[in-house]
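Archive maintenance. Older records in this collection stored only the sequence; we are now back-filling the structure field for every entry so that each record is complete. The fields below show one back-filled record exactly as it appears after the update. Entries are processed alphabetically, and S9 family peptidase is next in the queue.

ARCHIVE ENTRY
Title: S9 family peptidase
Organism field: Candidatus Copromonas faecavium
Length field: 641
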Amino acid sequence: MKKVEIDTFLKFQFVSSPTFSPDGAWVAFLVTTADREKNMYHKNLYAYHPETGKLLRLTSRGDCKTYTWTSGHTLLFSADRDLKKEEGSSPSTAFYELSVHGGEAEPAFQIPEAVSSIQALPDHRFLVMINYDNYKETRKSSYEVIDELPFWSNGHGFTNARRNRLAIFDRESGQLTWVADSWTDCMEYSLFGDLLLYRAYPFKQSVRGPKPGIYLYNMKTGETKTMLEPETRRTGAIELLNEQEAIVQSVDLSCTDFTTYCDFYKLNLSDGSLSLFAPYDYSVGSSVGSDARYGGGQSHKAVNGDFYFVSTVNDFSFLYLLKKDGTISGPLTKGSSCDSFDICGDHLASCEFQGMKLAELYVDGVQVTHFNNWLEQEYQLSRPEPLIFRAKDGYEIHGWVMKPADYEEGKTYPAILNIHGGPRSVFSDVYYHEMQVWASAGYFVFYSNPRGSDGRGSDFGNVNGLYGTVDYENLMDFTDEVLKRYPAIDKERVGVTGGSYGGIMTNWIVGHTDRFKAAVSQRSIANWISYEHSSDIGHYFVLMDLGGNTRTTPKLLWDQSPLQFAPNCRTPILFLHSDQDYRCYMAEGLAMYSAVKRNGCPARLCLFHGENHELSRSGKPENRIDRMKELIDWMDQWLKK
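Back-filled structure field:
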């Protein structure tokens, strides 16, 4: 069998965003593929008929962006085809309609705005999310105006005066009816009949806080009621159950810290009161990490008064059901990571990672697409072996170890410790491309979920103000345990890497120990004081996760900053960063590089142009390949020679 190579991911077909047709007869979904020659991705629309097993590819140009069902057999999707855009012209989004029964996609209509999502409503209407620019009449390309916070967003660039706006589009009249004013930033929403419940933050040229409000809009009367004022309490997922109540993820009004998970509350639509419905000490959505997925889909939905939701529990994410009586079911899916789903009647469609399989479409628990079966059939994959132990602090730590390809008893091998981002995310046993590449290159690979990770409750996930202490100790304990159980690892040839939070910990590790002989720090943070004022989420994330800010506790932030300990670094270290990473701005990577370079230890920095925080997961194909080459070459240089 072949070994996994860096460019093997170019053959992946990424399945995402399943939705049933209104009558439940079809399941539509998206499939994304990489194109190295054009250095981009193509996204096409597919449909599956559960009763007959028929699978149809509905588009072939690769330009499908967002879609919605308009009837039991007709879909509407947006694409750039036939839409002429001149430089400086107003944005416009073209939509096309096609039937699952065949025929060409026909132009349907254009909306003179930049539409990011669409959902069909009765009477030829659509609910659309629009990227709206309040400065579009005065904005110039020669300079940027900044008069609010945040002023940019990872993956979206400068966002000053730009808002996500909800609107009702009438297909027959071509009229747009705005749900809120142009300065209100709208987020997720839920529909039931004529009611639209949505989370939003209304702000104008000021500072947006971490706690949006909740609003109820009547699409028939045009009236809006405030259900929850902004900055009142933390909230998460929202779903209308009926015309009287909704499910809202929230915390108790007296809760002032940001470390606790949100429980499930009932929202009374008549008076806006929130009452605890079901305590829940986990997150909603999948936080299982992988660089082998592309695309989204819904993670929660209300059906006949029941609430279905994806949640990460321990090291895996499954679909669960919150019943009308307040009880929560066991897992409804089998895979290690349920990424998205849809429910219609008694039928469930889900997009899941199962074992070493890449994400595929499952209907009622049965795999119905097989786009990526070739991977297990043709390639030699390293199977993650679970390793559970009790760390010195008394907490149980979960991790995995992957053996090198062509592993032979009696031989010794170099190894790489990989640290996940977040910190509230998790590693699991799903396919992770970069780690398969490392194993194919002759490395042991080991990784874990230390304290601060998701899936184990608020206590385990709380590292507020503790960065570089309990998490660092867990990682070192895990390394010790792996080296003890796997004597084939040459302890003199162990490297460490990680991205985002994993990059922070890599920076921290090289300032506190010389046990690792090489390091690769990716999209990292060096100084929490500068991070607070440069990251798109810094002004509230630092307060939420570091236990203070530069105004109140600068010493606390500096004590948790790897830059303080950079003079101790003697480990050869490579920094990988992107110049449009506004989550962990490139100044952080440059600062750490500059600091360790002065020590005389080998250091190198690769700054990828035009990429953001998602380089390793959805960056341009060529840049993803170059990133992996740089990483492997660095590890080979210091761990193999």
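Update note: The chain has a mean pLDDT of 96. The two ends are 27 Å apart (CA to CA).
Entry marked complete.
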